[in-house]
Amino acid sequence: MVDMSRWRWLLADQLGPHFLDDDAQRVLLVETRSLFAHRPLHRQKAHLTLSALRHRAAELGDRARLIRADTFREALTALGEPVEVVHPSSRAALAFARTVDGLTVLPPRGFVTDRADFAAWADRRRGQLRMADFYRYARGRHGVLRDLPAPGRRPRHRPPAEAPPPPPVVEDDIDAQVRRDLDRWQAEGIRFVGRDAPRRYPATHAEARARLAHFLDHRLPAYADTDGALGDGLLAHSVLSSSFNLGLLHPEPAIRAAERAGRTGAAPAAAVHRFVRGLFGWREFLWQLYWYFEPRYRGTGWLGATRPLPEWFDRLDADAVEARCLADVLAGVRDTGWAHQTARLTVLGNYGLQRGWRPAELADWFRRSFVDGTDWVMNATVIGMSQYADLARIDTHPWAFDGAHLDRIGAPCGGCRYVPKETLGDDACPYTGGFEAFLHRNRERLAGDPRLATELAELAEHADPQRRDAVLAQEEKRGDEAP
Predict the structure, then answer these.
(1) How many domains, the chain?
(2) Of 143, 227, 325, 380, which residue is the least packed, with the fewest Cβ within 10 Å?
(3) Does residue 198 fall inside a structural domain?
(4) pTM for the full model?
(5) CATH code where residue 328 lies
(6) Do 66 and 165 belong together in one domain?
(7) Residue 365 shares a structural domain with residue 419
(8) pLDDT tens digits, 301-359
(9) Both 275 and 167 in a single domain?
(10) What is the SS3 string spanning 250-299?
(11) Residue 156 CB-density burial (10 A; 0-12 exposed, 13-18 middle, 19+ buried)
């Protein structure tokens, strides 16, 4: 039964209908400038967050109270009434909630798997936690994809099929006011990164639901054909992550809708499996890992990466970069606040891994620079997968690749001043030289890694101290300058 004596505080990533229990429930929304002043966010991320919060307040009308304050504590004090909140999505927010008298923390929402179930499963795994194993367990427990054949062999990559454009996002008076407020804050000294642009991502449940329906109807059928290449544009991806991470969509209805498309033949089994694996496999897995490992996870650094992020990277200064693949991806982040997963891992994360940038700083950069960036996602995908800094808890190999590999998966190497196969010299690809330097620095730590066995064996077989020293000196000289 709903406790009508309490306000339900909806955080800025809890804006969908599944975070409320009753149509008459009183809702508290809080807007605080301090969240934007602490560290520079991408301008479009800041706009999307404020727009979504204010649109939710407008939808709820008289049921909602939107308080603008310098801090959350100030807002709760101003309300002066009992409040409850659904379990926050970050440790910092949860720690704050537990310090507020009269604030009741409810169980988490927006995910399918129960935390106790995951903990029991993980405890049995004795530290060897793999997404594929969890995915099999969770599918069986929740009856997901039972009647759909296994996808079989991964299909060869093909260009994304033609599809009608998704429903457009139409800015309104709320967006106009958000933009005016952000302009004013910026003039008052709050710093943002990236470029402003018309809002391109859903800020309401209705907008997000329309985008999901369009994806299921028009892009899911070809979804299995468009995975893993750097050249893939928006058609090859659902681009729904920000909607799920803002809480505008719940994953279970999306999973069931994809299953129905597979059963009716509207989409092939391989496409349905790929979509569900990302939403019900990886997304659920990352959320659960964030809470299962607790704060110990963030302090890991197995590869001894200690260099700070350089200023050009932190500012999204793509114009300072000559390496075309990195310049293109960084420009995309600057202009849209988004990049697909292949680009995040093989271009952005790979570059930082090769240079030994601090994993926690890089995770924070992803959280601030991407519209779908959240602490619980970036901890595991950046610290665990991309930077391999967690003693292989999440993945079995570092996402380290040379320029030749990037060339094979579609990097725009043809027009680049660097040569993918060159390791030394002025024309040496920074990814190729960086990859070899990475292997030299970490060869003892990576010994026995099956994914890098060939490269490590070649390094040992053709051991040349002079070449090794030259590669290390070259990459050290390149240092933190834009490539």
Answers:
(1) 3
(2) 143
(3) no
(4) 0.91
(5) 1.10.579.10
(6) no
(7) yes
(8) 556 677 889 999 999 999 999 999 999 999 999 999 999 888 888 899 889 888 888 88
(9) yes
(10) CHHHHHHHHHHHHHHCCCCHHHHHHHHHHHHHHHHHHHHHHHHHHHHHHH
(11) exposed
